[in-house]
Amino acid sequence: MAQLVESHSTTKWLYFKEDLSIPGSTIFQTHKSAFGLGIDDQMILKNSHIDELSNVHYFFQQQYQGIMVEDGRYIVHEKQNRADMANGILILNLNTNVIPSISESSALQIAMSISQSPKFAWQDSSYVAFLRETSIDTSAPLIYSAPKGELLLTLKSDTLGGNPFENDFIADNYVLAYKFTIRTLDPVNEKIIYVNALGGTIIKQIDNLRSGNCHSGSVQTWYNGQQSFDTKRNSALQYRLIDECRHITTVLYDGAPIQIPQDIPTDSDNDWSSVSERPATSAHWAGKVCFDYFKNVHSRPGMNGNFYDVRIIANYSWSSGNHIQSMWEDPVIYCGKGDNTVAWHLVSLNIIGHEWTHGVIQFTAGLGGNGEAGALEESFCDIFGEMIESTYSTADWLWAREVFETYTPGGVIAGRSLSNPKDPNMYIPGPDTYGSILWNSMGDIHQRAGVQNKFFYLLCEGGNGTNDIGNDYCVEGLGVIKGRGLAYHTLVSYLSSNATFNDARTAWINATISYYGQNSFEVQQVMNAWHAVGVGLPFTGTTIYNNLIVSNTQNISHNNDILFNNLQVTPSGNLTVTSSTKITMNPTSKASSGSYFHAYITPSCPGGGMRLNNEPENNNSNNYSESDNANIDGENKINDTYSNGNIILTPNPTQGQFLLDIKNSQRDSDKNSSEFNNEIFIYDLLGNVIYQTINNKKTTSIDLSLHPQGIYFIKVQSADNLYTEKIILQ
User: Fold this and answer.
1) How far out from the chain centre does Cα 279 lie?
2) In the beta sheet, which residues pair with residue 568?
């Protein structure tokens, strides 16, 4: 592999050398062995798509002896007919029995036995009839037949709250299993259940509920005033809440089993003003807006990109009594009726948008589960829910504000806050910094979604401060137009289903590079925004302006070095430049007589807000490499044993193995030192975590001999102290 990729590549992100011309679609045919794959391994091309820049993204699925390997997915990104980069996970050296010892039907009975529900969706004739009667695409298969068991190789069990570490993705941890999606109606639930195909035991179970002829009608909505939507006129000249243009059918739930067509609201003149039907009419309009947003903004007509049939059930009540919830259970969006005390009907734009996005993710990145991939999924749903709402008003960065503010003035003001996830006045507050004390104490995926939510808010709006692990940050906002485009591009082209927050950071960076170029202002702010929420390093390189001509008033400010090549300020130009480090102009730069040019070096964050000037873009389309961006002092002399007074590294530089000794006065003075856990992270120059562990040892032995030579950064959280240092691998 070293002959194919650049030196800054990692096991999960490969950057192919520019002098190679390997087609992305055939790379696993021509270079299979370079990836470590054996004779029994196959990489199957599942799908591909062409983005707005004409780059092609190929999505491959690993198989072993014809059986799918669940986590073995790779995305190859092709530019100008050559593989440019690739990312994902491969399970190497598999040697596993793939002949099941129990039948699929026996495995299904085992899966059903643990569901604890008397009513399975496929056995309920009224519900199956509802799906059949409301199917706009008559060629689509009926989803609610008895579930089929997919035979595959799966990870034996999720660790650490459902979030496996990279070293869990090894052959010995995989077992043959039947995978079932079990849907129930009492209570409404959907679980993915894995049954061991070699013994009949339950391996794991994952909650999978994602908590979304045309005639123009008029509707008074709950939260957005008078609007219009499309309905269908039947043979009796009655209008029904069926949008055949967008494949959306909406039902008003009354507590009894759903009956079709009786439970689809009708109207004689297509002017919908009935208050009793307003939950359904509001949800139907919101579904229209969601479809139109993804179609018009991201060129995606329908969840699957091809007019997917969606049903919305409004005014829903759960047997549990908790009606303050909404859910996506393919192909249905359930909208709770609220409790008339804390929250009103859950049919606001950002709620339906959240659930709609679950459907989009189902057909793209496939994020999910109870770990970091699940938290990322919830975050993307919050993000696009807010972006959909912002098409009708300015983004308020409060998810589900409308449904809560009706009843609780001075109390709960929204479901979640993207700008301040920790706000205790939220129905579901959460952490805004990865690895913080709050992160460790809040393990629910809806809470941990706050980290990427805050990242996205800062990316759009900007901000500065100190996060919950002591990192100072400065972000200059890109605005919601750029932000939402990058969010979609990252989601559909660069993320795999088992992504971690570190993977998400790298995916956002590479997605941004593909649009704006390496070292561009946009890439810098993506890096800075992730650093602000505790993931990776900030941008520390140089912002370069080539051939910039200033003929009006412009303000340029960055928190890093700025270099001008051939800057020209005309007599009518007024340019102010601010940097916290260094400003350099080459000899051909010139400010003409009559112009104004001001340059300031200030130690404070010059950004932290929306960027007002239109800066030229850096058109270098190379991939992100910290070797181009890192501001490393090469003259720093590092002894064989290096100490910053808090942590000691021996030896440093190292050929791979070294000792990390932590000097913590609180630990050293406490007799029960086992109470103090050390969280140790090592980052490469790309900001990726290449090593992490948690222990209560004063001295830790670490081996990096399998990693490339270079500079790495160590972060240690010990008790209430945070230490950082760098180590050189020779």
Assistant:
1) 30
2) 549, 590
**616 lies in the same domain as 703:** no
Domain boundary pick from 158, 176, 207:
207
Collapse the DSSP code of 712 into the 3-class scheme (helix H, G, I; strand E, B; otherwise coil) and give the result: strand
- Give the C-alpha distances (Å, rounded to integers) separating 263 from 133, 258, 598, 666: 11, 6, 68, 66
Say which residue the tokens 């102010």 belong to: 576
Tokens of 488: 């979609």
Distance CA 686, CA 10 (A): 9
Q: Is the pLDDT of residue 483 over 80?
A: yes
- Backbone φ/ψ region at 520: left (φ over 0), alpha (ψ -120 to 50), beta: beta
Does residue 381 sit within a domain?
Answer: no
B/e letters for 293-320, b = 16+ CB within 10 Å, e = fewer, are: bbeebbebbbbebebbbbbbbbbbbbee
Are 159 and 111 part of one and the same domain? Answer: yes
Q: How far apart are CA 130 and CA 256, in angstroms?
A: 13
Query: At 157, which amino acid appears?
Result: S
Question: Are 68 and 27 in the same domain?
Answer: yes
Residues 6+ apart with CB under 8 A from 272: 217, 218, 219, 220, 265, 281
Other C-beta atoms closer than 10 Å to the C-beta of 614 total: 7
Query: What CATH number has the domain bearing residue 696?
Result: 2.60.40.3080
Overall number of domains in the chain: 4
Looking at the domain assignment, is residue 502 inside a domain? no
What is the chain's alpha carbon radius of gyration, rounded to the nearest angstrom?
27
Helix 501-516 with 372-389: angle, nearest 10 deg: 50
Amino acid at 131: L
- What is the average pLDDT value for the chain, to the nearest integer? 84
- Of 535, 538, 537, 533, nearest to 422 by C-alpha is 533
> Can you say how many angstroms the Cα of residue 382 is from the centroid of all Cα atoms in its chain?
10
CA distance 88 to 70: 12
Is the same domain home to 175 and 151? yes
Instruction: List the domain range (segments joined by +) for residue 74.
Output: 13-89
Over residues 100-116, the pLDDT tens digits come to 999 999 999 999 988 76
In this structure, the answer to whether residues 43 and 133 fall within a common structural domain is no
Spell out the residues 6+ positions from residue 50 whose beta carbon is closer than 8 angstroms to its own.
56, 57
> 501: pLDDT confidence band, cut at 50, 70 and 90?
very high
Pairing mode of beta strands 542-546, 574-579: unpaired
CATH number at residue 42: 3.10.450
> Using an 8 Å Cβ cutoff, are 348 and 285 in contact?
no
- Segment of 100-104, 624-628, 633-637 carrying the highest mean pLDDT: 100-104
Residues 620 and 653 in one domain: no
Expressed in angstroms, the distance from the first to the final Cα of the chain is 20
Q: What are phi and psi of 379, to 5 degrees?
A: -65, -45
CA distance 474 to 135: 50
What residues have CB less than 8 Å from 453, skipping those under 6 apart? 379, 382, 383, 416, 417, 418, 421, 432
* One domain, residues 577 and 667: no
Q: Of 575, 581, 459, which is closest to residue 524 (Cα–Cα)?
A: 459
> Where among 35, 59, 89 does a domain terminate?
89
Which pLDDT score, from 0 to 100, does residue 233 have?
85
How far apart CA 25 and CA 303 sit, in angstroms, is: 25
CB 652 within 8 A of CB 639: yes
Q: Which two tokens stand for residue 267?
A: 């109207």
